[in-house]
Amino acid sequence: MKNSLEKLYYLINVRINTVNTVGIDASCRFLEIWINETTSETDSIRTYLLKKSVDIENEQSLVLLIYQCQSALIRLLDKVFSYMDPASPLNGTYDTILKRLEKLLHFIECHYPKYFNKEEKVPDHLLHATQTLIKKELRHLEKTVFAGTDPRLKKILCSHLQRFTQNNNEEFICYKKLAYVKELVAELKDMSLACQQLMDLLIYMNFNTSDFFQYYVANLGVEIAACNLPAQKRDVLLSAFKSLNQLQEKPGIAFKPKMKNLKEQIRAWISEEINYLDQQQAYFTVFNEHSPPAPEIIDEEKLHTSLSVQQLAVFIRAARDAGVLTNKNQTALLKAVASIFHTPNANSISAESLRSKYYTPEPSALDSVKDILMKMFNKVQSY
pTM value? Predict the structure, then answer.
C-alpha cells in the first residue's frame, strides 16, 4: 500500500500539477495514462486493505493502517480539487481522478466504519458541496420553519449555520461536525416547529453554543421575574427542571464537542437559582425569628370597610395595576393592607387569604366592585 500511495503522491503533486501541465490540452495521450494509473493504484490499495482486514493479527495495526490511508487520501483529494478550474482543458481529467480517489475513500468509510476517523478533516470538495446544499436549505428554512419563531432564536440558529456555509478553510471541519450540521438541517426541514418545539429540538441535538444557552436561561428569567413570591419563582424553576429532564437528547453528538453538554449547563444554572432562593428564604426565616414582633394595631386604629376580603383584594389589585398604589413589593403591600383593614366579617385579615383572593378573584366579587366603583364615580361627579 505504501508503494501505491507514493505513486499517487508523485502523480498528483508532480505530474498533473498545474505548474507542470501548462500547454497540455484535452487531446494529450498522457491524460488517459494518468487516469488509468490512478485507477490501478486505488484498486491496489483496496485489495491490500481487504487482504489485511482478513489476515491481520493485531487489530490496532489495521486501525493505524486505515487512519494513514484516510489521511493520505484526503490530502490528495484536496490537492486535485485545488487544480480544478472550469476554464482548464484538463478539468475533466482532474474531475475523473478526483472521483477515483473519492470512491476509494468512500469504500474505506463504508467497509471500515468502526475504524474510520470521524475527527479527521473533511475533504475540501465534500465540504464545498455540503456548504452549497446547506445554503439552499437555509433559504428554505428562513421562509418556512423560522418564519413564525422568535427573531432572536432565528438569528442565533441562522448565524451559526451561515458561518458554516461561509467557511473558507480557516476553520477545521471534521466528519463529525459535517454529519451534525446535515442532521440538524434535516431535522429542521422535516418538522413544523413552534418556538418551544424548536428549543426542545436544539436540546435534543445538544446545540451547546453559548448564545443559545444564554437565550434559553433568559427566557426562564422572564418567567421568574413575573413571579412576586420566592415560592412561585421556585415552582417555575422546579417545573423547568422537570421538563428539561424529561426531554430526550441524542447521545454522542454536540455542535461544539469541546464545550459542556447543553442539558448539563442548563441543569447547573437552574440548580444554582433554586439554591439561591433556598438560601435567601433561610436567611429571612432566621432574621424574622430574631426580629422583635411588630406591635399589633388595635381595632380603633384600623380602617373599617364595608367591603368583604374578596372585594378588598380586587380593589387593591386594581389600584396597583392602575398605578394608584405604587408599592413595588406586592407581598409587603398585601401584608400592610391586611394589618390595617377591618371588614364586617373579619376583625383580623389573614395576609395569605388576601394574597390568595388577589390572584383568584371570584366573578361575583368583580361584579360587585364594578358597581361600587360606578357609585364612587357618580359621587365624584356630584361634587
Answer: 0.69
